[in-house]
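User: Can you predict the 3D structure for this chain?
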Amino acid sequence: MKYLVSVSTNHPMGHAGMSNVAGLVAGLTLLQNGIPVRIIDKDPNSRIRQRGRGIWPRSLELFNFLNVPEVNNLGKLVPVHIPKMIGQQLLDVVVQRHLEKFSCSVEMGAELLSFKQSGDGDTAVLAKNSILETLDTKWMIGAAGARSIKETEGFAGVVRKQLGLTFLCSTRDDFRIGTGDIRLKGVGLDRVASLFSTYSMESCPDPVSKHFYRFGSFSERSLSLRPTDEIGEDGWRFFTSDHELELTKIAQSEELIFETIASFIPAEITFNKLVWFNLGWKLALVEKGLAGKSLLETYSAERLPVISEMLEMTTSILNQAIITGDVTIQRSPTLFMLGINCRFSSIVFDEFTTPVKRKPINTYGVFDEGHLEAGDRAPDAPDVLQAGCGESDVKTLFGQYRPWYHTVLVFAPSLADATPILGDKSVMHKAVVLPSSAPVAPVTFSCADVVLVDQEGYAYSAYHVEANQTKVFVTRPDGVIGAIVHGEEGVKKYFSKIFLDL
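Assistant: Here is the predicted structure, written as structure tokens:
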């Protein structure tokens, strides 16, 4: 599935060609920032397949920031790990419902034929029902994904060919993988199976733990089945590997929807969402005239080191699975992506950690709760009580983060120590976090949008702040810590890297 998202005040359309839901995430991020978009899809009909189904912890946090709670509610919990499973067929529908709240819907059957760039924007030529349309748009976001590697036509081919882009990767013709959806029934084929029940059909007492049957060896020939209710009560997601795979011989049926992957290119769907979340808030600031176009250059600068390390890691996992024939090998916690960071970015600022003291950067590292720097993922904390409200108004820090503003967290011993920072800006949300010992009078707090009391000390612990210390954290719209500073001057230095008027 390929999405075209176009951004323009007068001609709303931003361009994001995607093979997954990440394009919709980009569109929703822009819409929540007040930027009108138009989204088109070359396919005439909506997706009827599961494709990538893993929703990892970092994605669950992303959807929380976007205020899309259905992903967490609908996803099936995977035993042992924190991730959940929800097919992209359902995920697309969930995100599109939120797009519709902004009077935006995906236009099916519309194809990008060509485009031209100029200093004022782009001119795209679209085709729908054999009717051509010329569209002037200010921004086009191209994101065809790994599927574009061998495409020479359609959205992916048009973008790469006209921009002269190459796709840095390696392909494998010695091993083939097929995945798709199928409807079938079989005697003894219980839909509640233990995780990776090899050569067995043993039932699992926990109905939540319905996952895979696996037959054969991954390195030679294998088949795995996972029950999926999205396509029917008899629906299954299949995954098969073979050195000479021909999916057309597996089944000749309209009930089978499949894809053939002649080359396997490991990719992390969650990271795609993070990438477009990153671009979305930066593009919104540029479009509003609050930031210069140079801010967009940090998109690639922050993305490439992480994705390079990710591809090395996932390729290693694939190679090990092929050699051993075992796809159930214990995987590193780094795949949870809670340790992904951009400490190296030119737009993060840290007054507590100097470059000299920094350890060698591991952009895809294991989440370390004992250390926190600018560029790291902002941690959450439960049981923070909003001052001036009743005991029932207990919040989390994640509830303060949204994609249309920076959140300035001021940890201070008292309100008197939490002086006003910068001023009244619609792109900044100011929150004071007080220790449980701090006295708080039920008055209007003019210096902050919200005052929170850390009842159990979780926030102070997660952010490594002492109860008698004043420390300021600026969290970017994508949930990344942009700055860790002592006070107002440090905040100004950080924002001078982002905004034009500072």
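The chain is about 20% helix and 25% strand. The chain has a mean pLDDT of 75.
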